[in-house]
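RESIDUES AND SHAPES:
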Amino acid sequence: MNIIEVMRLPLSVDLSGFIHLLQRLQVPHRVSEEGDAQVLWAPDTLAEDVLQLYQRYPDGNADLAASADPVAADSPANAPAQPSLVAQAKACKITTLTLLLCFIVAGLTNLGDNFTTISWFTFLDFRVQGDYLYFTPLAQTLDQGQWWRLVSPMLLHFGVLHLAMNSLWYWELGKRIELRQGPWLLLGLTVLFSLVSNLAQHYTSGPSLFGGLSGVLYGLLGHIWLYQWLAPNRFFNLPKGVLVMMLIWLVVCLTGVVGTLGLGQIANAAHVGGLLIGCLTGLLGGALARRKLSA
């Protein structure tokens, strides 16, 4: 399935209501600016439905239209196609590929129980001697050309719950950015957030075993949060309470209570580092988008 141009409209046309309608219907899409026009993109299999939907409800006011003409609104012929999970996955290729790599690595490492395969993806290479892990220094690791280790820990997960929670959040946050700002931007942000969060964790805790997407997730959260604050877009509207819940969880983890309760060690520096760099990219991206809108 390919993403194609559905329609091209002047920047003066307010698409926010229609975009909100597409979100409610869970139709994969994204909007880009090209010169003095805004372009709406959607999967080729849904392009005709999206165009017809815009012709009927350009303001996204489908609820009022349904009240005025309930028979037409309830007609299956007039209902836009609901994309399946497979269709959404095809429309969000980077989001899907990242999660697929996480699942593959989880299988290879037996969810963190196979130390031999874990060492392929850790920030520092290590060897096991007795009950201890001996890590290779970062400078030596990079001299050996193992640059992938700067970002590969994001693919490591320790346990089913760790993998499941991170995967669900990456799907929720990643696809929003990919559909709104494009796959290459999401890929760049994912790599950047992984790099910064891994470096923060390494230089804070020293040589240690850590992994997971959570540093990237806090980066994506910070990016969406401040981008939306500066350049509001309905597609970046997070469900109520999500931001507050994740920030509260961050504070709880920083207190050390999670480790005290025996629930595992938390890579707090990775979380904070990811959030800070995400806020920075959100500020920069939101400021640029706001300037374009006001130009």
